[in-house]
Amino acid sequence: MAERTHSGERLGYALGVFSVGLGLTQILAPAGVARAIGLKDDETTRKTMRAFGFREAATGIGLLSRPNHAEFAWGRVAGDAIDLALLGRALRSEDSRPNRVAAAMAAVAGVTVLDLLASSRLRRQENGRGRDTENGGLSQANRGIEVRKAITVNKPPEEVYGFWRNLENLPQFMVHLESVQVLDARRSYWKARAPLGATVEWTAEITEDIPDRLLAWQSVEGTQVPNFGHVEFKPAPGDRGTEVHVHLRYDPPGGSLGATIAKLFGEEPSVQVDGDLRRLKQVLEVGEVVHSQASIHRGPHPAQESGE
Amino acid sequence: MKATCWEGKRRIRVKDVPDPKILNSRDAIVRVTSTAICGSDLHLLNGYVPTMERGDILGHEFMGEVVEVGRAIKSLNVGDRVVVPFPIACGNCNMCQRDLWSLCENSNPNAWMANKLWGHSTAGMFGYSHLTGGYAGGQAEYARVPFADVGPLKVPSGLSDDQALFLSDIFPTGYMGAEMCNIRGGDVIAVWGAGPVGQFAIASAKLLGAERIIAIDRFDYRLELARTRAGATDIINYEQTNVLETLNELTGGRGPDACIDAVGLEAHGPSAMYAYDRTKQALMLETDRPIALREAIMACRNGGIVSVIGVYGGFIDKFPMGSVMNRSLTIKTGQTHVHRYLKPLLQHIERGDIDPSFVITHRMRLEDAAEAYDMFLHKRDGCEKVVLKT
Question: What is the pLDDT of residue A17?
Fold first, then answer.
């Protein structure tokens, strides 16, 4: 195991041991852990704690068995994000002791930094070893966020392309877009909601336009959130309509740490794009975005009509 | 309005909540006249289905009168009496057009949750967690019905609520379970579970021409109902008899031609297997207890069909895949494509081939839903099926 001399791997190994230890403690003594970090010790907490213990131990075992693989380290980062989000919720709950919860949050945040460090170091090593070649042309190391998603729409390509090409239609199904304003044949002005109530705006230009087949765009120089992408429209096999393939890249404000923080607030980019494509399908197939009593609200809401 | 709300594990309360509103142009609002508690509601009650929120309105078996329609609805009028299928389906997507209505690609706004648990999503469903859309259910005075031009079936005035209500779920579910068995004359069908869905699987197997139908349960009153009303020719109480041995005896050592699992994820069993699965479930090492499913697989004749209509939520353990593979078994399953069965089964009812009301043992008021759930859960007072009236 000569490769273990890499610093990312050593850190990965140490985090692995830590994970297995913490995981087993959570499984075997959930009540103790809950009290130690200031959470109300009830059945729900204990169950959640055990579930988290299993997750923790599993990523730990993954890290220990393959300490030179970034996936498990990124798994830990994602896990940390969940922990922080839940602790954040606990902080607002009346049943918890805020001081201890805050201390636990600080501890988890510290571990998150270590996790980020380990995974980005591992990622750089992977890139150096020639892995991840598929996106080699696009991604310089791990900067930015890349999303690929596809959906099949039960309509012919010309109809799907035509709807998308009218860019001012996009906010109908892309929930984070406030508006798109077409400036001229190539340029358009976009306004979008960002995490924590912020707004981002940019000008985009179309870089390639093949009617009924492909549309590519990129933000013009000097925007807050540099982004580019393309969408391809392909006839689906077996008369099933059109496959819509979206490929997006953007650099979020704050780099990868910013992206992690965004995820913390529930803004997971691939889930977001997936949802947007499902809404595109709804708009084209049934004529509007489909709502349930819960989904019409942003954030959790019980399946009943709201009060107002 | 009054509605039956999930307030946490094993906590049901009938509460005053805001009336439903039209949210999409193809919606209708139905004033519920009759609604039933389904065995699968007990999985929600017991907390085995993830993504429930406090305050969720339960219920996916309901019928009533249309009181309001969205602007795109032309096929229904205010005053129409309708029964509503439990899966919500748009009629426009590829799955709906292939007659696979419970897999509608547009009706689950929370598809991303289902994608995480199941790989891909099902259709949205009424009152059945947020994983299947977060739609308010029908155990209430009013319900919003999306895609009302596709789902609801107008009920002829000659039929009572009690006769038509079960077209919403359990009659088509039992029927699909039997249909998946490809029954031919002379076939022997075994049905695990003599709850309401099992009863309709038995009755449907009979309609489809099975020669012998064997019902398996642990409650004698349910087995008796299966024998006297649904059409079972033989019954097995698994707490008193070894199921595999008895089935072999009843079928000349070959096993039933097809086995229907109408039990699902909360199976009971007399054996050590029950303790094993209960423990694994409690430790969250598996989500579902597949005791009936394992037995159905082991019992089935070589080259036979195992038809699964009992509900499973997530993951099972010790699945006898060797038995399935080496003995050329076919497993068929699915949430019921109710829309497909509405008209044919309505005809069976109108012709008098079957009166679905035979499963009803209790009629109660919506206000008493909490008590009804408790009675159904604990099988008190010979409870087979509860219908709630508003």
Answer: 72
The tens digit of pLDDT for each residue in B319-353 reads 999 999 999 999 999 999 999 999 999 999 999 99
Taking Cα atoms as reference points, which of B21, B3, B24 lies closest to residue B107?
A: B24
> Per residue in B198-216, pLDDT tens?
999 999 999 999 999 999 9
Please tell me the distance from the alpha carbon of residue B76 to that of residue B70, in angstroms, as a whole number: 10
| A286 vs B: CB within 8 A | yes
CATH architecture under which domain B2-169+336-389 falls? Alpha-Beta Complex (3.90)
As a whole number, mean pLDDT of residues B186-194 equals 98
Q: What percent of chain B clears pLDDT 90, i.e. is strictly above it?
A: 91
From chain A, the residues in CB contact with B57 under 8 A are 302-304
- Residue B133 near residue B139 (C-beta atoms within 8 A): no
pLDDT for A112:
60
Chain A residues whose CB is inside 8 A of the B138 CB are: none
Q: Which residue has the higher pLDDT, B294 or A29?
A: B294
Nearest to B135 among A47, A154, A292 (CB): A292
Distance in Å, alpha carbon of A86 to nearest chain B alpha carbon: 15
Which site among A44, A293, A297 would you substitute to test the B interface, given the most B Cβ atoms closer than 10 Å to its Cβ?
A: A293
Which of A179, A77, A80, A178 lies closest to A120, judged by CA?
A77
Of A227-231, B218-222, B332-336, which range is least confident? Answer: A227-231
Per the CB < 8 Å rule, is A281 touching B92?
A: no
Alpha helices in A66-139 (DSSP H): 70-92, 98-128
- Count Cβ atoms within 10 A of the Cβ of residue B168 and give its class: 0-12 exposed, 13-18 middle, 19 or more buried: buried
Residues A240, A261 contacting (CB under 8 angstroms): no
A307 near B CB under 8 A: yes
Chain B residues near residue A271 by CB distance under 8 angstroms: 112
Among A16-25, A79-88, B92-101, B246-255, which stretch is predicted with the lowest mean pLDDT?
A79-88
| DSSP characters over B132-176 | TT-B--SSBSEEEESSTTTS-EEPPTTS-HHHHGGGGTHHHHHHH
Residues A134-191: pLDDT tens digits? 333 334 444 578 899 999 999 999 999 999 999 999 999 998 899 999 999 999 999 9
**A47: contact with B, CB 8 A cutoff:** yes
Q: What ipTM was estimated for this complex?
A: 0.92
Return d(Cα A106, Cα B310) in angstroms, integer.
Answer: 46
From A154, A286, A295, residue closest to B134, measured CB to CB: A295
**CA atoms within 13 A of residue A254's CA, in its CB half-sphere:** 9
Q: Do B136 and A285 touch (CB under 8 A)?
A: no
Residue ranges of chain B that CATH labels 3.90.180.10: 2-169+336-389
Interface probe with A: pick from B29, B56, B68, B106, most Cβ of A within 10 Å: B106
**Whether the predicted pLDDT of A75 surpasses 90:** no
Residue intervals of chain B classified under CATH 3.40.50.720 are: 171-333
Q: Do A301 and B53 touch (CB under 8 A)?
A: yes
Query: CB burial class (10 A; 0-12, 13-18, 19+) of residue A94?
Result: exposed
pTM: 0.80
Looking at CA atoms only, how far is residue B369 from chain A in angstroms?
Answer: 17
All structural domains of chain A? 2-129 (no CATH), 143-286 (3.30.530.20)
Residue A110 pLDDT > 90:
no
Nearest CA in chain A to B107: A290
* CATH superfamily label, B171-333: NAD(P)-binding Rossmann-like Domain (3.40.50.720)
Query: What distance in Å separates residue A308's CA from the closest CA in chain B?
Result: 8
